[in-house]
UniProtKB/TrEMBL annotation:
InterPro entries xrefs: CRAL-TRIO_dom (IPR001251), CRAL-TRIO_dom_sf (IPR036865), CRAL/TRIO_N_dom (IPR011074), CRAL/TRIO_N_dom_sf (IPR036273), GOLD_dom (IPR009038), GOLD_dom_sf (IPR036598), PRELI/MSF1_dom (IPR006797), SEC14/CRAL-TRIO_domain (IPR051064)
Residues covered by the PRELI/MSF1 domain: 1-173
GO biological process terms held by the UniProt record: negative regulation of RIG-I signaling pathway
Pfam families, alphabetized: CRAL_TRIO, CRAL_TRIO_N, PRELI
Positions of the CRAL-TRIO domain: 309-485
Originating organism: Oncorhynchus mykiss
Origin: domain of life: Eukaryota
Protein name: SEC14 like lipid binding 1
GO cellular component annotations of the record: cytosol
GO molecular function: RIG-I binding
């Protein structure tokens, strides 16, 4: 179990968090099971920079009385060692159980440290391990009790430290001086002598004067190129952020810059994913990486420039952008009750509708950026007004509902926190049926933004006028503003397409990508073979690790591997098709490395979220095999305790599966050199045209360069 959070200690700086922590001893009323503690030994370095305290803590564990009687104990004792390094501004806490240590091993580590980006913030990190060897046949019960107690302590840990920080502030203590070496004290490097203090039941750890000084605010970066701590930048483009939220944004952006080789999204976009997961770094990183891979695979960044809406959508899709709401958010209007969903699906197919909705979301992101500049404050989401007048049972056509659910799923995954408010007007009696079908697929936080009005309720108090200015209320809702959203109507059946036509078009729409997807399992790598005729050819690869960690290999063989058979149970090779991509194994199990095939590139370990590009100049003709293998973390030799990752992996089969998205190409050596020479020449010409101001020539240069 690992818990990590960061606390803003801007009012109690210096040694403040440590002073607050020490108030928990010898006992703490906020932790009922913490009965008592005593100091066994207290030492301090000669220069006073390192302070060590060893305690014995007495706990009254919330366990069944029968279990306590069988175990023969009423209380559980723990040993705790605290090390305060005033020079480094760190506090390390290590504890382990004394009671039943031959049956149960509990080991806990905690640390307080100054935040690397802002020294007035305090970081707290906590981890613990539990190993139950035997416990009178009650191993499962003890595990549940331990997890319950630990989860409770994690939840209260931050509350307790903040309680004592507030207590110090109420007492007028807003600053605790930082430690500075005295002039007559020996340096820590020249002396390691420690002074042992007498053991006492009530520790007196820190004899510091606590002068009252005004509250200290967080310093603001003045570097124009460093916006991560610039208060004006945050207020102007991101909105109100707590120090913890700002820190999460900084760390996630830094992780992307270090590990993601593709396009780095803007801070506003990263922030949406953090908010969608309540600033849980790991969860936000996972969904953001998946979304970035999805955008790259389907070229979503260029959708507004490449996607042309079919005429059927222009005529019969009853949705469009319409001014903005009172908060400056872009306003999108959808007259769903007037839309012939069945006709649109039959005429266009599910994929065209999905792509059209994606273009709407991309346009929404662009409008948010524009409105942020216009109104001078951060606008990161839009308001959607849905008019349901005319909604009836024909809108519950199963393929139409299926298409709607898929669209919701894709939008939820890739455009989180973009919907600021959803106003549903003139909801008819059939609406609860549709809502029952759709609502389970909508995130709970998103559902909280829904406001539903039946009949003409939207015209009364708390209605439309609370959110939209009277001047922009559409005419079909009783306003005076002309709305250019199409009125819809039935799509002519002459425009309907056959199922075969739609299926073929759906495939062509979403396979307009040079990338392929593959699944990698534990014990089942994915392999791709390339036949090389000319010895000096160049193999290039570009792949993204969408899930899990993999090891990439490149092998050469003079023999052609047999293609996998359709039946994976027959023969030595296998081919598996999964929703996440194919899994193909080509290297025969009877082959011997170094005899039947050889390694021509050193193994490359690739972490989840990484984007990898590379090339290899071939030395021999033959068959080159690109392989992605499941990466297994080596076990720790220093401890026999199970790793948290290993425990989780044993509980989740999906943890033994990785996903990669890849593209490979073979280029002749002459073509390879010509390709880069031509690219460099075009780049030079491009710069030259820019310097001369010949903008009319840019299109001719850039278009083939991008191609």
């Amino acid at each position: 179990v690992i818990k990590h959070y960061e606390s803003n200690a801007r009012f109690i700086v210096g040694q403040g968090p440590y002073v607050a922590y020490e108030r928990r001893f010898p006992t703490c009323h906020l932790i009922p099971m913490f009965v008592d503690s005593e100091v066994l030994e207290e030492t301090e370095s000669e220069d006073g920079s390192v302070h060590n305290v060893q305690r014995r803590c007495k706990l009254d564990v919330d366990a069944p009385r029968l279990l306590k009687r069988i175990a023969g104990v009423d209380y559980v004792y723990f040993s705790q060692e605290n090390t305060l390094n005033k020079r480094e501004r760190t506090l390390h806490i290590e504890s382990h159980n004394e009671t039943f240590s031959n049956r149960v091993i509990i080991h806990e580590l905690c640390s307080y440290s100054a935040h690397p980006e802002n020294e007035d913030w305090t970081c707290f990190e906590q981890s613990a391990s539990l190993d139950i060897k035997s416990f009178f046949g009650f191993e499962s019960t003890v595990e549940k009790i331990a997890m319950k107690q630990y989860a409770s302590s994690i939840k209260k840990g931050k509350e307790i430290i903040e309680f004592y920080l507030n207590q110090l502030e109420e007492e007028g203590i807003s600053h605790v001086p930082r430690w500075t070496p005295s002039l007559d004290a020996p340096s820590s490097s020249s002396s390691s002598t420690v002074t042992t203090k007498p053991v006492c039941a009530t520790p007196k750890l820190l004899q510091l004067e606590l002068p009252v000084t005004p509250a200290v605010s967080i310093p603001v970066s003045t570097d124009a190129n460093d916006h991560k701590l610039d208060a004006d930048y945050i207020k102007r483009y991101l909105g109100d952020l707590t120090p913890l939220q700002e820190s999460c944004l900084i760390r996630l952006r830094q992780w992307l810059q270090e590990s993601h080789k593709g396009k780095i999204p803007k801070d506003e976009h990263i922030l949406r994913f953090l908010r969608a997961r309540d600033f849980n770094m790991e969860k936000a990183r996972e969904i953001l990486c998946q979304s970035l891979t999805w955008r790259k695979q389907h070229q979503v960044d260029y959708l507004l420039e490449t996607w042309t809406s079919p005429q059927v959508l222009s005529d019969y899709y009853t949705g469009g952008w319409h001014h903005h709401d009172k908060e400056g958010r872009p306003l999108y209007i959808l007259r769903l009750g007037q839309m012939d969903t069945k006709g649109l699906v039959r005429a266009l197919g599910e994929e065209s509708l999905l792509r059209h909705v994606l273009s709407i979301n991309e346009e929404g992101l662009r409008r948010c950026e524009e409105n942020t500049k216009v109104f001078g404050r951060p606008i990161s989401c839009w308001t959607c007004l849905v008019d349901l007048e005319g909604l009836n049972m024909r809108h519950l056509w199963r393929p139409g509902v299926k298409a709607l659910l898929r669209i919701i799923e894709v939008v939820e995954a890739n455009y989180p926190e973009t919907l600021g408010r959803l106003l549903i007007l003139r909801a008819p009696r059939v609406f609860p049926v549709l809502w029952t079908l759709v609502s389970p697929f909508i995130d709970e936080n998103t559902r909280k933004k829904f406001l539903i009005y039946a009949g003409n309720d939207y015209q009364g108090p708390g209605g439309l006028l609370d959110y939209i200015d009277k001047e922009v209320i559409p005419d079909f809702l009783g306003g005076e503003c002309m709305c250019e959203v199409p009125e819809g109507g039935l799509v002519p059946k002459s425009l309907y397409r056959t199922a075969e036509e739609l299926e073929n078009e759906d495939i062509s729409l979403w396979t307009e990508t040079i990338y392929q997807s593959a699944s990698v399992f534990k014990g089942a790598p994915h392999e791709v073979v390339l036949e090389i005729i000319d010895a000096a050819s160049v193999i290039t690869w570009d792949f993204d690790v969408c899930k899990g960690d993999v090891v990439f290999h490149l092998y050469h063989s003079k023999r052609a591997p047999q293609l996998p058979r359709k039946d994976p149970l027959v023969g030595q090779h296998s081919s598996i098709t999964t929703p996440g991509g194919n899994n193909v194994q080509l290297i025969d199990k009877s082959w011997t490395l170094g005899l039947d095939y050889s390694m021509v590139e050193s193994p490359l370990t690739c972490k989840e979220g990484e984007s990898v590009q590379g090339s290899h100049v071939t030395r021999w003709p033959g068959f080159y095999i690109l392989q992605w293998r499941f990466h297994t973390m080596p076990g720790s030799a220093s401890t026999n305790l199970p790793r948290v990752d290993d425990v989780l992996a044993s509980l989740q089969v999906s943890s033994h599966k990785c996903k990669v998205m890849y593209y490979t190409e073979v280029i002749g050596s002459e073509d390879f050199r010509l390709h880069y020479l031509t690219s460099n020449a075009r780049l030079s010409l491009f710069v030259l045209q820019l310097e001369k101001g010949h903008s009319h020539s840019l299109t001719k240069i850039v278009s083939p360069l991008l191609a």
